[in-house]
Design brief:
The complex is a heterodimer. By secondary structure, chain A is α/β, with parallel strands linked by helices. Chain A has helices at residues 12-17, 35-47, 89-94, 108-117, 129-133; strands at residues 3-7, 23-32, 59-61, 99-102, 120-123, 136-143, 152-166. Chain B has helices at residues 8-24, 28-40, 44-63, 91-105, 150-153, 166-181, 199-210, 221-235, and strands spanning 4-7, 73-81, 84-87, 130-136, 141-148, 157-161, 189-197, 250-260, 265-272, 278-282. The chains are: A alpha/beta, B alpha/beta.
């Protein structure tokens, strides 16, 4: 199985080349955010207020890491279910977010917004948190420290393993319906 | 039988050890099922995902770090012997303190919030745990504990079927729940099914079923056959490891039952991710 190495930030050319089903190793920096942070970002966008983090061109990783043991850059940090962010995602994509890393399915509104905005959705392996955390070399807090594990962090990643789950044309490799038997 | 005195601190230590152990070291039943699944998986992506899940278990165990960042909400089924007296503390507080110490000292994620709707403020020590206690005869305390991640918990469901639905109705509800969950609950999943009792009893049985090793089966041959049939049917859905396709969608189906009312046939399906973490101990 061939694996594509990609370096962030994502350019429009790289996004166009990524096809659903591609295995990738991601290097560069991503921001993190899950339920509570998404709710806050969304509410700020609704009110037309500035965001605490510039999301233009960024990739967001849906994760709430476990605490880091001494000597570790970050604790185990696998993806959380993406569908819970669906309500907020189109607004973030409209603001310039270019990629998302999570696990599981997305709804039709998110896929339509990805096509419109030229964005990509990567799936990481849920429950492979100790393995994934080895590719996260550094972590720093960016915003919403009061949210603890749900705060927005910047992660510096090297060869972070993922699969292009839904590409910028809306093609998907996620199996969302059972096979007809 | 003599009255047996157990120090509250002994309960706390045992509970702490259970939760740290289960979060770092997956059970041999799950590991063995993952290895078999990897050998039999026909999808390249599926095999690759299973290999990474297996490697993840090896890293978690050797580094003594959590298998998954979602170290769950703590659930305990306790059989409390009626000849046991707790000294120097209360039983409930001793259990909660054990959970608290495991999550703080063990670098486990604190995922519990206070009020579910309005406040949602993190309690910062993963308490309260959900505790079910049965008083039984004897002078021992048996603790069966699990840490339940919510990616899969959110995909679970209860339905009040009525007797005319029969076995076909039970199967349909279980398959509908699994198919609705699809790629979301971190497949390959473990499916816990509770049938009978009342509304909440069925759900508790389903939870308890997820804590039963998957290399065991229901002692009633009819339910054992149903476990096997459902496992095969779920693995024919094609969701596959991580929902990326393949023939490994579930590692096990465990069914638990209880007598029920003449008018009812409650069925609960508690879905658990492939990191099905549970341990038990006796004090």
């Amino acid at each position: 199985m061939s694996i594509k190495k990609i370096t962030l930030p994502l350019t429009d050319d790289v996004i166009k080349e990524l096809k659903a089903g591609d295995s990738v190793l991601i290097s560069g920096s991503v921001i993190t955010g899950r339920d509570a942070a998404h709710k806050r970002l969304y509410e700020l966008l609704q009110k037309g207020e500035p965001l605490p983090v510039d999301i233009q061109g960024e990739v967001i990783y849906y994760v709430g890491p476990a605490p880091a043991k001494p000597g570790h850059a970050v604790g185990p940090a696998g993806p959380t279910s993406s569908y819970r962010m669906d309500k907020y995602t189109p607004a973030l994509l409209d603001r310039g977010l270019k990629g998302m890393i999570g696990k599981g399915a997305r709804n039709d509104e998110v896929v339509a917004s990805m096509i419109k905005n030229g964005a990509v959705y990567f799936a990481a392996i849920g429950g492979a948190a100790a393995l994934i955390s080895r590719s996260i070399k550094k972590s720093e807090i960016l915003a919403y420290e009061d949210l603890g594990t749900e705060a927005i962090y910047r992660f510096y990643v090297e060869d972070f393993p993922a699969v292009v789950a839904i590409d910028s044309r809306g093609e998907s490799v996620l199996v969302t319906k059972p096979k007809k038997s | 039988m003599e009255i047996r005195r157990i120090q509250a601190s002994e309960i706390t230590s045992a509970v702490k050890e259970l939760f740290m152990d289960m979060n770092y070291n997956i059970g041999s039943d799950i590991l063995s099922a993952l290895n078999t699944a990897k050998d039999n998986e026909t999808s390249d992506t599926g095999r690759n995902v299973l290999a990474q899940i297996i490697e993840n278990h090896s890293i978690a165990s050797s580094e003594q770090v959590p298998i998954c960042q979602d170290t769950g909400m703590a659930v305990l089924f306790i059989e409390y012997g009626d000849h046991v007296v707790i000294e120097n503390g209360s039983f409930e507080e001793a259990v909660q303190e054990g959970v608290r110490r495991a999550y703080i000292d063990g670098y486990l994620r604190k995922s519990v919030v206070t009020d579910p709707v309005f406040d949602r403020i993190n309690t910062k020590d993963n308490t309260p745990a959900v505790i079910y206690t049965d008083i039984v005869k004897g002078d021992k305390i048996r603790i069966l504990a699990g840490c339940k991640g919510f990616g899969s918990e959110n995909m679970s469901s209860v339905k009040m079927l009525t007797p005319s639905a029969g076995i076909e109705g039970v199967k349909k509800f279980i398959m509908d729940t699994v198919n609705y969950a699809g790629p979301n609950p971190c497949p390959p999943i473990v499916v816990g099914v509770g049938i009978g009792g009342t509304f909440e009893k069925a759900a508790m049985l389903a939870k308890k079923a997820t804590l039963r090793p998957i290399d065991t089966h229901n002692p009633d041959e009819r339910y054992h056959a149903l476990e096997n049939e459902l496992l095969e049917e779920i693995n024919n859905t094609g969701f596959g490891p991580a929902g990326l396709g393949g023939k490994t969608t579930a590692l096990g189906v465990n069914i638990e039952t209880f007598p029920t009312h003449i008018a009812g046939m409650p069925v609960a399906v508690n879905i658990c991710c492939h990191a099905a973490r549970h341990k038990e101990t006796e004090i």
